Amino acid sequence: MIKNFLSLEWKSFFRSASFGKGLAIKILMGFLSLYFIAIFLGMGVVLYPGLKKTFPDKDPLTIVNSVLFYWVIGDLVFRFFFQKLPMMVVKPLLVVPVKRSKIVNYVLGKSVTSFFNFLPLFAVIPFGITLMVEGYPILSVISWMLTLMLATLIINFLNFIIESFSTEIELSFLPIISIAGGLFVLNYFDVISFTQIFANGFNAIYNTPVLIVIPVLILIGLYIINFKLLRKKLFLDSGLKEKVKEIQASNLDWTKNFGDIAPFMQLDLKLIWRNKRTKSSVWMVLIGLLYGLFFYPQPTYQGMPWFFAFIGIFSTGIFLINFGQFIPAWDSGYYKLLMSQNIKYEQYLQSKFTLMALSVVILFVLGIPYVFFGWEILLAHFVAAIYNVGVNTHVILYGGSFNRKKIDLSQKAAFNYQGTGAVQWLIGIPLLIIPMGIFALFYFLIGFEIACLVLGILGVLGIVLHQKLMKGITAKYLQSKYKMIDAFNQNN
């Protein structure tokens, strides 16, 4: 059965509409994995001699045990945001004679092979071998190393339990932040010394290897809990809501002022406000609006006017970037239905453009108080807003024609990378790097005012040529229309 599951996933990967982009991302992640492996391997090799040299009067193993609590907390938080339960398309399997227990065991077993579980070994094994060479008891060291491996798996399954309950909450990252922050505060103020508890636990297993049965039992318990949680959700109708909530309708009559594109704008606004994933774009606006406060109050950045353009582009275009990079994937759930209607594609795209342009104008107006830090900053934000409206809106709409990954709007928003492909990684270059490069070039060659003028002229040209640009972008979407329909029908 495991062989059949692996065969299905293999075919799903190679037959996917986004195979080329998925393969490119996996190759990139492979190089990134090699980088982290090299770091952990180097750390494992130099850890013992480094600690011995820095703390000659202390046992390196005791020092390592005393900081394991921070490793557990850090690993748990990192996994929550970046590690997802390896899923497979199970709904087609639920109507064939395959036991649900086998599907769940396969999914949980696959999670054990995660890179996050193997990475610590590249530091633990060299350090353990060094301990043996230095004369530490071999059985005790092996028990200590196995305990760390078991702790890694415990964190793996504990993360899935926390994530399972977090998905039911609007701000899904609050439980993990509360748990990790609470434990850290209790330890920091010596209310409960978790560093000492963890250190004593690992020291006890090192001195009495038979105690390794305790983390084994904890691991088995967490596996059983995960098994029950997943098995409970493994039904064809598990996605149906049990609770009925009263819908609060918003008054969107003001959108009628935009003529033919009003229905599409209403659809987008309702989509943004009613779904977890899209609603995160609204909260990100606040971060973008306050982004300048991280830089402008510092004297170092006051002397770097060429950097103002980047902050202005990001601050006024934060909604444009977060919402625009997933056009039209936001509508992937009903994209086939949308394309079967008698509508003009240009109107559909024009509504997206209008929504993003309005957000840029609103964010610029709300950011006017930055003039407190200098008129140059306000001027840089003004030309950045013009550039966003005239250039970046068209760039991000054109980039959307290459989107081939479906988005599940009901999934949690925090650090959710579903729908993210090569397009989302590469689009940042023309959106942020190129305008900053142009601004910096003219700033150093001529001056600040000319750099602002050049950026503003580029934005005005984009606004003047808007109709022609939209016709070209629409043609590109129409050319990719059926490829996107096919791709959005798949579960990526």
Rg (CA only): 27 Å
Q: Helix amount, in percent?
A: 55-70%
Q: Quickly count the helices.
A: 23
The overall pLDDT, averaged over residues, is 81
Distance between the termini: 22 Å
Q: SSE order, as H and E?
A: HHHHHHHHHHHHHHHHHHHHHHH
Number of strands: 0
Class inferred from helices and paired strands: mainly alpha
Please tag this protein with its features.
492 residues; mainly alpha; globular
Summed up:
The protein has helices spanning about 1-15, 20-55, 60-65, 70-80, 100-110, 115-120, 120-135, 140-165, 175-190, 195-205, 215-235, 260-275, 275-290, 300, 310-315, 320-325, 335-340, 345-365, 375-400, 420-425, 430-445, 450-465, 465-490. By secondary structure, the protein is an all-alpha fold.
Account of the protein in words:
The chain is mainly α and about 500 residues long. The chain contains 23 helices and no strands. It has two domains: about 1-235, no CATH class; about 255-490, no CATH class. α12 (about 260-275) packs across α13, α15 runs antiparallel to α21 (about 430-445) and α18 (about 345-365) runs antiparallel to α19. The model is unreliable at about 240-250 (pLDDT under 50).
